[in-house]
Write a structure and sequence with these properties.
The complex is a heterodimer of chains A (about 700) and B (about 575). By secondary structure, chain A is an alpha+beta fold. Chain B contains 14 helices and 20 strands. Chain B has helices at about 1-5, 10-35, 40, 65-85, 165-175, 180-205, 215-235, 295-310, 350, 355-360, 425-430, 535-540, 545-550, 565-575; strands at about 45-50, 60, 95, 110-120, 120-130, 155-160, 165, 240-245, 265-275, 275-280, 325-330, 380-385, 395-400, 435-440, 460-465, 470-475, 495, 500, 505-510, 515-520. In chain B, α4 crosses α8, α5 (about 165-175) crosses α6 (about 180-205) and α8 (about 295-310) packs across α10 (about 355-360). Classes of the chains: A alpha+beta (about 700), B alpha+beta (about 575).
Chain lengths: ~700, ~575
């Protein structure tokens, strides 16, 4: 009898921790859901593992556990990280004091706030040393002063030290020597060096990233230790991997060294779920649309991969406002966050117009219809009034919604003041929230130079499937897909990510002055480092994706260009230039091929093979009942009240079932609204798909 | 009757269409930002886009960009419509100008305007302004005698006629630029932005089966006007005055080398509130001075409107409705309205200060809304020119921001106001120019104290490694940013070349020369003794405020060992400072 090999994906969300267990040979998926334990998330994770074990899973058969977590992001938002010190080049400890590029991110905010640095000024110490942009040492490291600085920080009780010297990406000796000096004073100190965290030009971003890494490192170390020993106690002897912010995997050791990579670990798993769902439907270009209680998150998936951004920020002081957070600098999956959710409040603004969000009633007190003290009408209240949500079947009937209270709130706060009847006011709220989300997604797609109209919408989250039809209509999406149990899909998404590690190095140089040999040497060094990490993780098959960030001389914005093998032969650098020109045109829509280019940051992404995931058919032996539960009236702005809209129970629908709008399909997690004249069907994975 | 019925538009539709217009302006801005070539647009955001109505009012604007550009392009359109009648415009026409007196007050900014046609009728205008990478000129910011020395002057002309390029004009512009590729490339980016706005507005009308925007426009303006009037009405009627004093040692091109301090220039704002109308009158301000530092008429209007708008109806999307109750008067020939053909490259030296004059006047009337004066008005700029190690000519503008004035309920920080220019990363400076940075540091004790303190000034030190020609535009050195309502002034700025103080202007650096900029700190708001003790302690612990300053300015007694406050001693000292002896 062959031993069945098992892989486990664990996705820790805000409320639930989802686990998905996959048997490699049979493709059978077993899932489990437990409550998240925010104070120590490893408790919830281990409770889930125990539940799976009591269902028959043997931890000894697990060869890998893949984990997505929001721990890093939460520590930054709540500012609950380590007491961190920073050591900089003499004259530059205030780099961190200058917020970003000194721009006001909202020119009409008369009380504009900026995030406070994670390291207070007194814990930012200076050491004489200096390196030029060409990597030459201008002033050697002053070791005596360095030791004094270390002593001061130790006396101040820091738990983690970040080191960021100017131009250190071009010459790493001084930072590395600093680490030796720190460790010789205090061997257990955690040290983050800027050239290791973000080896790139631009001192504010690099310092910010290094400090973020240092700030969360002790916490992450403790958590990983607890989790790993908990798993080992249960007989686990395989590898523990963590999901990175770009949707790759990193080993436990890699995660501990560079926890900044995990800053969007949780949401990245969610977007991977959309990729999996899209692939099931044979679509590689989709828009992942996840709408919950306070926010909607959108990610553009192109060619089966999420777009990546290098301008990600955490812990924004004004939600949804670009420029109001701390930049992380490293590549992060491009997730657009929109201030629109079920709990978004509808109010009348100073212009006498209805405004939806960004204020939100969240889960507490929540929408008026929750009867938990909320008094301001929200998007969910409008959904109830419009008939989209069934007051008797919210969360599968676990909660009853007060429709009357929702009506009253919309009538008194919106309808009466604006002279509208109830349904018009409720429809206005619904229309506007759809409009807001669609417009935000559209403007963002322009920024990324993607034609969003060719992208199907993969809708999740409690509020996503309710509003997907309106967003899809406005965006011109060819179809909407509402995957079955999205929480499970997130944890499944973890199982399809390859182990991947990226190393990079900035070597600013005009392309025309570079030789192929120099380029090959840089890349080989990066590949070696990647290979070592993969080898340690027991991955023997390696794929290297080489790229370089380039710009036209004089420009400040880099474009990542993929390097192919033939570019690394004699005369190949002209091919690199051609590829950069094409990539630039693709990204920005203009041709500047006649201009000379400059290379900035060389990157190697070393990955193991992409795991195949062969899903078995969903358990189909359950006795199925009548899918059509009944009818109810729903209001659609273009049609008015439509009586007798069909209401289906999602659990009872089978692959191949077809239906016509208007209809509502309900399950415990959400309700899918199908507008009039739309046709839909259930695919072989029990996803709901409809055209709008 | 049917027509009249069509004019009624419900408030939900108003909101959706209005948001859509804002979104179109953002999309255009993104397109321009994405496709522009020059760093001045792409890194410093020195541009803006707007959609305007057929009468030349702003309907919607971009979220990023320079605040004044939005207002100036509407003024430009109003003037252009006097030269080209609405009826004479054809689909595909694009009008360009950089005439400082009707555009942005500086020849380096190109304004491009295009009519948006729908059903054979002009329904709106698309506009885009951007600082051009180069349009010729003397390139010494302080030595130009008049506008002709500063660059190619382009009066309103058609860049496109019925969609056909005016090749003669393109050729002329290219021939007058040191970097014709960049200059034309950035113009292309502006044209892309105009095109997006045209296309999207047409789609919007078609989708909603509308003939034009005539029903929407009065809704947008009317609602905005009502909102700002409601706030203005709260301000007690009266005439409020303020004299803002300005350093008077800008280089005089007619008397080079004469840097003797002169009596300060006066920017006089008389703000009359009557009912919900506001008139800002700069009559009585100093006469225009030689050189390019005087504000232009369009810039004075734009920044006055922006300043009032910011503190009365914040957060809301900008449009011309907010400007309706605001009237600006600035006599020609004063520092607030330079007379043709004055030079104007440095017009922000005075133009950036108009907001502060208005806030100074209104401080007593609306103490809960005003900002104190800041160290980025004017925004200091260090323009450097020379050849890099590859022998290529560079010409870069490095903004050096000071401390913002205290805000109504917040301390100032180091940022740009009223403009919105971003800094240049130090490592980018070193990589692209022959300079080594020696420091970028906050200047302790430089912020004006107050219940809310100003932002601190910064010290930025450069060492040249090759010969460099430079121009500096800076002020608030002799007359520092003032506090308001009992707040103290920030520390004035200072510029030193090899440790000797110099006067801002044009000059030259030799290899090894060190130039150090100390930008001004912002002024404070309300008496410093009202500041929360914890906030003072935090500043002391952050080594931003000295223990001596904590005591002398804020009346907070701090133990130098523990860095904690002695609350009893603090109470006594604060009472003493307030002249409020407890024995009485």
């Amino acid at each position: 009898m062959t031993t069945e090999k098992l892989r486990l994906g664990i996705d820790v969300g805000g409320t639930f921790t989802d686990l998905a267990l996959l048997a490699d040979g049979s493709g059978v998926v077993t899932t489990e859901k437990v409550l998240t334990t925010p104070r120590n998330p490893s408790e919830g994770v281990l409770a889930g593992v125990d539940k799976l074990a009591s269902g028959g899973m043997s931890c000894t058969k697990l060869y890998s556990v893949i984990h997505g977590t929001t721990l890093v992001a939460n520590a930054l938002i709540e500012r609950k990280g380590a007491r961190t010190g920073l050591i900089t080049t003499a004259g530059f400890r205030d780099i961190l004091h200058f917020v970003g590029r000194e721009l006001r991110y909202d020119m009409f905010d008369p009380n504009i706030s900026f995030p406070k640095p994670l390291v207070p000024r007194a814990l930012r110490l200076e050491v004489p040393e200096r390196v030029g942009s060409d990597g030459n040492v201008i002033l050697p490291l002053d070791e005596e002063r360095a030791k004094e600085a270390i002593k001061i920080l130790l006396a101040a009780g820091v738990e983690s030290i970040a080191v960021c010297f100017l131009q250190s990406y071009a010459h790493t000796d001084h930072e590395r020597r600093m680490r030796e000096l720190i460790l010789s004073e205090c061997p257990e100190m955690r040290v983050s060096l800027s050239h290791e965290v973000l080896p790139q030009m631009r001192e504010y971003e690099r310092t910010s990233a290094t400090v973020i890494n240092a700030f969360v490192q002790p916490l992450m170390g403790t958590y990983l230790k607890q989790l790993e020993s908990g798993l080992q106690e249960r007989g686990f002897a395989g590898n523990l991997f963590l999901m990175t912010s770009t949707g790759g995997l990193v080993s436990r050791e890699g995660a501990e060294a560079l926890p900044i990579q995990l800053v969007e670990s949780g949401p990245a798993a969610g977007a991977l779920a959309a990729i999996v769902a899209g692939k099931n439907a044979g679509e590689e270009n989709v828009l992942s649309f996840d709408m919950g209680g306070t926010t909607a998150k959108a990610a553009i998936i192109k060619g089966g991969r999420a777009l990546v951004s290098k301008s990600h920020e955490v812990a924004r002081v004004r939600r949804f406002k670009k420029g109001s957070g701390l930049p992380v600098g490293i590549p992060v999956m491009d997730l657009l966050e929109i201030g629109a959710g079920g709990g978004s409040i509808a109010e009348i603004n100073d212009l006498g117009l209805i405004q939806i969000g960004p204020r939100s009633a969240g889960a507490e007190p929540g929408p008026v219809c929750y009867q938990r003290g909320g008094t301001e009408p929200t998007v969910t209240d409008a959904d109830v009034v419009l008939g989209y949500l069934n007051p008797e079947f919210f969360l599968g009937g676990d909660m009853t919604l007060d429709e009357e209270a929702a009506r009253r709130a919309i009538e008194t706060k919106i309808g009466k003041p604006l002279g509208m009847d109830l349904m018009t006011a409720a429809a206005a709220i619904s229309r506007m929230v759809m409009e807001n989300m669609a417009e935000a997604a559209r403007v963002h797609s322009v920024e990324m130079n993607v034609d969003i109209r060719r992208h199907g919408l993969i809708a999740f989250g409690g509020a996503g499937p309710v509003h997907a039809y309106g967003v899809a209509r406005r965006l011109g999406s060819p179809f909407v897909m509402c995957p079955r149990d999205a929480g499970v899909l997130s944890s499944l998404g973890l199982l399809v990510a390859p182990l991947a590690v990226e190393f990079s190095r900035t070597a600013a140089e005009d392309l025309e002055f570079l030789t192929v040999t120099e380029v090959v040497n840089i890349l080989l060094d990066l590949e070696d480092r990647g290979r070592k990490v993969l080898d340690q993780a027991g991955v023997t098959e390696h794929v290297f994706e080489r790229s370089v960030d380039m710009h036209y001389i004089g420009q400040g914005f880099e474009v990542t260009t993929i390097i192919t093998d033939e570019m690394l032969t004699n005369g190949g650098l002209q091919l690199l230039k051609n590829r950069f020109d094409e990539t630039y045109t693709d990204r920005y829509g203009i041709k500047l091929a006649e201009l000379p280019a400059r290379t900035m940051t060389w990157r190697v992404l070393a990955s193991g093979p992409t795991p195949e995931i062969k899903l078995g058919a969903p358990a189909g032996n359950l006795p199925r009942g009548q899918a059509l539960k009944g009818n109810r009236p729903m209001f659609f702005p273009e049609y008015g009240v439509v009586e007798d809209c069909a209401v289906y129970s999602r659990l009872e629908l089978e692959s191949g079932d077809e239906f016509e709008g208007p209809a509502a399909i309900e399950d415990k997690a959400s309700t899918v609204i199908i507008p009039p004249r739309a046709n839909g069907w259930i695919d072989d994975q029990l996803n709901i798909i409809f055209n709008v | 009757m049917a027509n009249k019925e069509k004019q009624i538009i419900d408030s939900v539709t108003v909101k959706i269409l209005w948001d859509r217009l804002a979104s179109i302006a953002n999309e255009a801005t993104t397109t321009q930002h994405r496709t522009a070539f020059s760093t001045v647009v792409r890194e410093s955001n020195d541009f803006a886009c707007a959609i305007m109505d057929v009468g030349g009012g702003t309907l919607a604007q971009s979220e990023i960009g320079v605040p004044s550009f939005v207002a100036t392009q509407a003024i430009t359109l109003q003037n252009v419509l006097k030269l080209f009648s609405l009826e004479s415009l054809k689909p595909g026409d694009v009008i360009i100008t950089n005439d400082p007196w009707i555009a942005t007050a500086q020849v380096y900014d190109f304004t491009c305007l295009a009519p948006i046609f729908h059903n054979n009728k002009v329904v709106a205008f698309a506009g885009s302004v951007a600082h051009s990478p180069d349009i010729g000129g003397v390139q010494r910011w302080s030595t130009a005698l008049d506008v002709f020395e500063e660059g190619l002057f382009v009066p309103p002309m058609k860049l496109f006629r019925r969609g056909v390029r005016n090749e003669d004009l393109f050729t002329l512009i290219a021939a007058n630029s040191r970097t014709p590729g960049y200059t034309l490339g950035d113009l292309d980016a502006q044209l892309s932005a105009l095109h997006i706005m045209q296309q999207r507005v047409q789609e919007l009308l078609k989708e909603n089966e509308m003939d034009d925007l005539d029903a929407l426009v009065p809704e947008i303006y009317g609602r905005s006007e009502t909102a700002i009037r409601a706030v203005l009405r709260e301000i007690p009627d009266g005439v409020y005055k303020y004299d803002l004093l300005i350093d008077n040692r800008f280089p005089d091109p007619l008397m080079p080398g004469n840097v003797e301090p002169r009596a300060p220039l006066v920017l006089r704002a008389s703000v009359t509130i009557s009912g919900s109308d506001i008139v800002v009158d700069y009559s009585g301000s100093s006469s225009q001075v030689n050189g390019g530092v005087n504000s232009g008429w369009t810039g004075t209007q734009a920044y006055t409107g922006y300043g009032i708008r910011l503190i009365t109806v914040p957060y809301l999307p900008h449009n011309a409705g907010f400007l309706r109750p605001i009237k600006v008067i600035a006599p020609t020939g004063t520092i607030a309205n330079a007379q043709y053909p004055a030079a104007g490259l440095c017009r922000h030296a005075i133009g950036h200060q108009v907001c502060d004059a208005v806030y100074g006047a209104l401080a007593g009337a609306i103490p809960e809304r005003v900002w104190a004066q800041g160290g980025s008005a004017p925004g200091w700029i260090f323009i450097v020119m020379g050849k890099d190690s590859r022998g290529n000519t560079y010409n870069r503008l490095i903004p050096i921001n000071g401390g913002l004035g205290a805000m109504p309920n917040k301390d100032g920080m180091i940022a740009s106001f009223p403009s919105n220019m971003s800094n240049t990363p130090l490592e980018v400076v070193e990589d692209s120019m022959p300079m080594i940075m020696e420091s970028k540091a906050v200047i302790p004790d430089s912020a004006g104290s107050g219940k809310y303190r100003g932002g601190f000034g910064q010290c930025l030190t450069f060492r040249a490694t090759a010969p460099i020609i430079f121009s500096i535009v800076a002020a608030r050195i002799l007359y520092p940013p003032q506090g308001l309502l009992g707040g103290s002034p920030g520390r004035g700025g200072k510029i030193c070349l090899n440790s000797e103080e110099i006067v801002p202007g044009d000059g030259q650096l030799l290899p090894g020369d060190v130039i150090a900029f100390e930008s001004p700190g912002g002024g404070g708001l309300h008496p410093p003794t009202q500041r929360a003790v914890e906030a003072v302690i935090e500043d002391v612990q952050d080594e931003l405020v000295s223990i001596q300053h904590a005591a002398s300015d804020y009346g907070v007694v701090i133990n130098s060992e523990t860095l904690e406050a002695d609350l009893d001693a603090t109470e006594r000292l604060r009472a003493l400072i307030d002249g409020n002896d407890q024995d009485q």
